[in-house]
Amino acid sequence: MGKRSRCAKLSLETLRLVWIQQFHVEEGKIRYRSNDNIPPASKLIASPYDKDARLSVKRDTEWTGYKVHLTETCDADLPHLIINVETTVATTQDMELTEVIHQELEHKQLLPSEHFMDTGYVDGEHLVNSEKRYGVELIGPVAQSGNWQAKDPEAYDNSKFSID
Q1: SS in 3 state form for 19-52?
Q2: Which partner from 39, 50, 58, 112 sits 20 to 30 angstroms from 130, CA to CA?
Q3: What was the pLDDT predicted at 7?
C-alpha cells in the first residue's frame, strides 16, 4: 500500500471516529450528540489533523494540543538549564506528573535536594513521597480544596483546623 493510500485510509478512519463521537441518527435524521452523550475530553478527537490532540481549559486559557512539563535548574551561580521535558495530552493533570518527573530525574542522576513546583504538582502525598522515595524536599503551595465544605462558609473544611 502506497503512502498516499495509507494517509487517505487514516484520514477516513479519523473522519469516521469524529462522526461517531459528534453525531447520531435519530428518527432517520442526523443529529448532534448532546454534551452528556459524547466521550470525555480525554478521548474526544479535537483535531482532524492529530487524533491524539485534546481540548483543554485552564482558567482563562483554552487550547487544542498537548502540555509540556519542563524542569529547569535554578542555582544562582550556574546557568539555568532545562534538564527534563515531559509531554502529555492536554487533559493530563499536572499532579499526575510529579512522580514521573522525579523518576526521570533520578534515572538521569539529576535529582535536586529541593524541588520548587507550582500548585498543580503539589499535594500532601507528593510532599511526603518525594522526601521518602527520592530524598527531595518538594517546595510549593498546596492546591486549595475544591470540595463543598471549602465553598460553604457554614461548613468545616481542613482550613478550619490547625495542627498543634
Answers
A1: HHHHEEEECCEEEECCHHHCCCCCCCCCCCCCCC
A2: 58
A3: 76
Rounded to an integer, what distance in angstroms lies between the CA atom of residue 155 and that of residue 26?
46
121-163: pLDDT as tens digits: 999 899 999 999 999 999 999 877 777 887 888 888 777 777 7
Helix/strand/coil (H/E/C) assignment for every residue in 56-72: EEECCEEEEEEEEEEEE
Q: Is residue 142 a contact partner of residue 130, using CB atoms and an 8 Å limit?
A: no
| Dist CA 24 CA 119 (whole Å) | 40
Q: Can you name the residues that pair with 116 across neighbouring β-strands? A: 139
Q: What is the 3-state secondary structure (H, E, C) of 126-161?
A: HHHHHHHHHCCEEECCCCCCCCHHHHCCCCCCHHHC
pLDDT tens, residue by residue, 67-121:
999 999 998 899 999 999 999 999 999 999 999 999 999 999 999 999 999 999 9
All 3 cell numbers of residue 116? 520548587
Amino acid at 30: I
